[in-house]
Each structure stands twice: as structure tokens, then as C-alpha cells.
Amino acid sequence: MAVFFEWSDELSVGIQEIDEQHKVLIDLLNELHDAIRLHHGSEASGHILGRLADYTRTHFTVEESLMRILGYPDYDAHKQHHEDLIKQMNDLQARLLGGEAITFELMHFLRNWLTHHIIEGDKRYTEHFLSRGAQASWHKKSWLERFWAK
């Protein structure tokens, strides 16, 4: 697989559970990029995009649940960012079903959106989460990581 989007320490929010979920999102973007680059067709791309959309929704649900449980003060604005991306992904899936191809321009948009969202949005909640009892790391694999394993 060609690396389109690479994980770096700059993207770490300092909470292993969330970082591992972000890595899965990056892996799915790389998989989608490869499908496009290698001309695997819209059916293969659509399948990967569906997995990406499903995992994104699950990830957002986890983040939003933690925000509510831990009383994150910027919950509403962060949730709106999530809803905006979900809408864009739904639109993208509809366009793909309508015969439109996924372009590299769109892939760059998704990569830039995720990078910006992690650095400008997700990193803001780290201190709040940790101060309210969230753990920075775990000793066992995450239930979500096991659930979504390939």
C-alpha cells in the first residue's frame, strides 16, 4: 500500500484510545487512496468508503460520549464539526452511487480535514479529559480496536 497519509506524533492527542482510532481512520484513507490509484473501480472504492464512513460515525460517537460524560465545555461546536463531515461523507457516498468517481482532490480534502480536525479540535479536549479521569494509555487492546480489526 502506498502511503498517502502517515501517522505522526504531531497528530497524537495524548489519549491512546483516541489515537488508535485516528490511526484506523488514516489506514482507511490510505486504503481508499490505493483503490483509486490502482483503478480498482467504483465498487471497491465504494466498499472502502462505506467502511470509512461507518468507522468515522463510531469514532465520533465515542468522542461525543466522552465529551458528554466528562462535561467538555466545547461539546456543541465539536459535535457540529462531526455532523458537517458526516454530511459530506453521505453526499460523497451518494455521488459515488450515482456514478461519479472519487478523485484525488477529494482524498486531499479528507486528509486535510482529518489533520485539521485532530490538531485544531481534538487536541483541545485532551487536558480536559485527562483532568476528569480519562486514561492516557491502556494495558490491553481497546474493545473498539478489536471490534473493527480487519
UniProtKB/TrEMBL annotation:
Checking PANTHER family in the record gives: BACTERIOHEMERYTHRIN
Origin species, per record, is Iodobacter fluviatilis
Describe the location of the Hemerythrin-like domain by residue ranges: 14-118
The protein here is known as Hemerythrin
Q: Which residues form a coiled coil?
A: none
Q: Which InterPro entries match?
A: Haemerythrin_Fe_BS, Hemerythrin, Hemerythrin-like, Hemerythrin-like_sf, Hemerythrin_metal-bd
Gene3D superfamilies xref list? Hemerythrin-like
Q: Which UniProt keywords apply?
A: Iron, Metal-binding, Oxygen transport, Transport
Can you tell me which family this protein belongs to?
Belongs to the hemerythrin family.
> Keyword Lyase: yes or no?
no
Single GO MF annotation: oxygen carrier activity
